[in-house]
Amino acid sequence: RIDGKRLWDSLMSMAEIGATPKGGVKRLTLTEVDRQGRDRFRGWCEALGLTVRVDAIGNMFARREGRDPARLPVLLGSHLDSQPSGGKFDGALGVIAGLEVMRTLNDLGITTEAPIELVNWTDEEGSRFGHSLMGSGAWAGVYPLDKVYGLQDVEGVTVDQALTAIGYKGEHPAKPFPADAYFELHIEQGPILEREGQQIGIVTGAQAQVWYDAVVTGQDAHAGTTPPSARRDALVTAARIIDLVDRMMRTRGEDGRGTVGQLHVLPNSRNVVPGEVRFSVEFRHPDFAEIERLAADFPREAAAIADGARTPLALTELFRLPAQPFDASCVDLVRQAAARLGLPAREIVSGAGHDAVYVARSVPTAMIFTPCKDGLSHNEAESIEPGEAEAGCQVLFEAVLARANR
Amino acid sequence: RIDGKRLWDSLMSMAEIGATPKGGVKRLTLTEVDRQGRDRFRGWCEALGLTVRVDAIGNMFARREGRDPARLPVLLGSHLDSQPSGGKFDGALGVIAGLEVMRTLNDLGITTEAPIELVNWTDEEGSRFGHSLMGSGAWAGVYPLDKVYGLQDVEGVTVDQALTAIGYKGEHPAKPFPADAYFELHIEQGPILEREGQQIGIVTGAQAQVWYDAVVTGQDAHAGTTPPSARRDALVTAARIIDLVDRMMRTRGEDGRGTVGQLHVLPNSRNVVPGEVRFSVEFRHPDFAEIERLAADFPREAAAIADGARTPLALTELFRLPAQPFDASCVDLVRQAAARLGLPAREIVSGAGHDAVYVARSVPTAMIFTPCKDGLSHNEAESIEPGEAEAGCQVLFEAVLARANR
Ligand SMILES: NC(=O)NCCC(=O)O
Ligand SMILES: NC(=O)NCCC(=O)O
Question: Which residue's alpha carbon is nearest to atom 3 within ligand 2?
Answer without folding.
Answer: B352
